[in-house]
Amino acid sequence: MKRDLLSLQDLTRPEIFRVLDLTEKVKSDRSGYQTALQGKSIALVFQKPSNRTRVSFEVGINQLGGNCIYLGPTEINLGVRESVEDVSKTLSRYLDGIIARTFYHQDIVELSKNSSISIVNGLSDLYHPCQALTDIFSFKEKVGTLEGRTLAYIGDGNNVCHSLLLACSKVGINMNIATPPGYEPDVEILKIAQASADLTNAKLFLTHDPLEASDGVDVIYTDVWVSMGQEEEQKKRLSDFQGFQINSNFFARANSNAIFMHCLPAHRDQEVSVEVIDGPQSIVFDQAENRLHTQKAILLFLMEGLSS
Ligand code: CP
Ligand code: NVA
What's the pTM value of the predicted model, to 2 decimals? Predict the structure, then answer.
């Protein structure tokens, strides 16, 4: 039976911890698993640009002995040159898996529905599950235990925020979310996260006051104010997010050893000040490195039947 990772709803709580454990193994044994994907071909079907996701998947697949094919917007032209259904059925005849980066999450769902191979979401408008798994791994690496810790997500209630909500609520991390009015996370995703949080005793707190969200937290996390595909909203968004730039005032309210996280790419002096992102509390490049290790673990988990 094929396994997909379209969103973190596809993984149970024990499976998330399994991926975290596997990531630790993969990271500490960098030359291990060299033949795990031997004879397997995986394509990256990307409609948007990428640095981290593309490079870390390509390198990771090669390190696991697999063959990786990058198919950018001009090659496949998903849903324009050919329907998502036909692309999916065709690629299923050649490949063992697809990492998809699309504008619409529904296109990733359609890829999954019409394929016999594993589909991994490499970012859609709704979710970024590989990022969130990496983030909780990176957080655990710094602080040891996850349950009962608090992460403040300050900024846009976007794809990165949604996946963090699902991840944190499942593993028991409290989450404070501060957005400007009108930029809150999706109500349905919040409901799903709240149901998980009820089981793990994680607390979810929403506010429009970014400083209040930083009180006593272990992590301050932010993302860009204008995501890919929202370029025409740039002017309005830059104005609506005034007061949400993470700077030292936020860290004065957080725990003294709090860390700063950002999925990257970042805009210095927009959503985060230079002193914070380039300061000692920032772990953004550890996060970026951990994309490689976590995604190797995700592929091993999905493809090699390592699911426990
Ligand atoms: N964080 C992240 O997904 O980066 P890229 O858009 O560069 O892949
Ligand atoms: N929210 C951002 C994340 C980029 C990794 C975007 O979708 O552009």
Answer: 0.97
Closest by CA position to 54, among listed 291, 300, 293: 291
Structure-token match 């690496």, residue found: 141
**264 C-beta closer than 6 A to ligand 1:** yes
Residues facing residue 219 across a β-bridge: 151, 259
Q: What type of residue sits at position 163?
A: S
**What is the spatial distance between Cα 202 and Cα 253, in angstroms, rounded to a whole number?**
21
Known active-site residue 291: yes
Q: Give the Cα separation of 89 and 4 in Å (integer).
A: 16
Q: What structural domains does the chain harbor?
A: 8-128+288-303 (3.40.50.1370), 131-286 (3.40.50.1370)
Beta carbon of 167 within 6 Å of any ligand 2 atom: no
What are 184-218's pLDDT values in tens digits?
A: 999 999 999 999 999 999 999 999 999 999 999 99
**Strands 150-154 vs 204-207: parallel, antiparallel or unpaired:** unpaired
CA distance 210 to 158: 16
Q: Quick one: tokens of 66?
A: 């697999």
Ligand in nearest proximity to the CA of 287: 1
Say which of 52, 54, 105, 128 is annotated catalytic.
128
Per-residue pLDDT tens over the stretch 19-57: 999 999 999 998 889 999 999 999 999 999 999 999 999
Q: What is the DSSP letter of 282?
A: B
Report which residue type is found at 209. D
Does residue 223's CB lie within 6 angstroms of at least one atom of ligand 2?
yes
Ligand 2, closest atom to CA 263?
5
Q: Contact at 8 Å (CB) between 262 and 151? A: no
Based on the residue annotation, tell me whether 68 is a catalytic residue of this protein.
no
